[in-house]
Amino acid sequence: MSSHTCRSSRADSQDSDRTEGIDEKKGRNVAWRQRRRTAFFMRTAILLVLAGAIGFTLYNNATKENREVLQVGDPAPDFKLTDLNGEEHQLSDYKGQGVFVNFWGTWCKPCEKEFPLMERQYQVYKDQGVQILAVNIAQSDFEVKQYAEQRDLTFPIVIDKNKSVMEAYNIIPLPTTLLVNAEGNIEKIITGEMSEEDIQSYMEQIKPI
């Protein structure tokens, strides 16, 4: 009787070991699949960023000779674009206020550095008659919305889906920012990354008197 009990215990122990081995193998398989899925999404995101950067560069090189160059003092070309909440923004509707028109892309590293600085200054100046319109160049709503939410951006972000605004403003490098004064004229054109001191100074420059 005791011998039978001992054999049963060994069998139970072996069954338990086999079950634990199977569970451990399943766990390794699940972890491996999760790592592969994460790697796939990361590779996809990197490829999208690279494709956007390459496409933007090729498009600019192909069309830059046909564009008129805007200068300080020119009327800012009017445009109407839709933000991430479905609300339309027309530049001429902001007449009487200063507008900080910033052209950008999610793949643009200087743009990424500027945005938290712009957000901080936006909170200071939005009630003083200075607005920001951040114009994304032809990326998907999903990409842009995810980017904005991850960085807690509250100023209006609009998407130039067919690049018509980019062409009207002769935008080549990103970021490019245009200061539009209360009369609707271009006060300054800035190419490249801005410091927070720059942004504050520019917002003061276009703040209505």
Q: Which helices and strands, and how do they pair?
A:
Layout: H1 2-63, E1 80-82, E2 88-90, E3 98-104, H2 109-125, E4 130-137, H3 141-150, E5 157-160, H4 164-168, E6 176-180, E7 186-191, H5 196-206
Parallel strand pairs: 3-4, 4-5
Antiparallel strand pairs: 1-2, 3-6, 6-7
Helix pairs in contact: 2-5
CATH fold naming of one domain: Glutaredoxin
For the sheet with most strands, the description reads: 5 strands, mixed
Structural class: alpha/beta
Order of helices and strands: HEEEHEHEHEEH
CATH homologous superfamily identity of one domain: Glutaredoxin
Order of strands in the sheet with the most strands?
Answer: 5-4-3-6-7
Helical proportion, percent range? 40-55%
Overall geometry comes to elongated
Q: In angstroms, what is the radius of gyration?
A: 27 Å
Kindly list the characteristics that best describe this protein.
Glutaredoxin, 209 residues, elongated, 5 helices, disordered N terminus, 7 strands, two-stranded antiparallel sheet, alpha/beta
What would you say this structure looks like, in words?
The protein has helices at 2-63, 109-125, 141-150, 164-168, 196-206; strands spanning 80-82, 88-90, 98-104, 130-137, 157-160, 176-180, 186-191. With 209 residues, the chain is α/β, with parallel strands linked by helices. It has a domain at 67-206: Glutaredoxin (3-Layer(aba) Sandwich), CATH 3.40.30. The strands form two sheets. A five-stranded mixed sheet has the order 5-4-3-6-7. The longest helix has 62 residues, at 2-63. It starts with a helix and ends with a helix. This is Thiol-disulfide oxidoreductase ResA. Residues 9-23 have a biased composition (Basic and acidic residues).
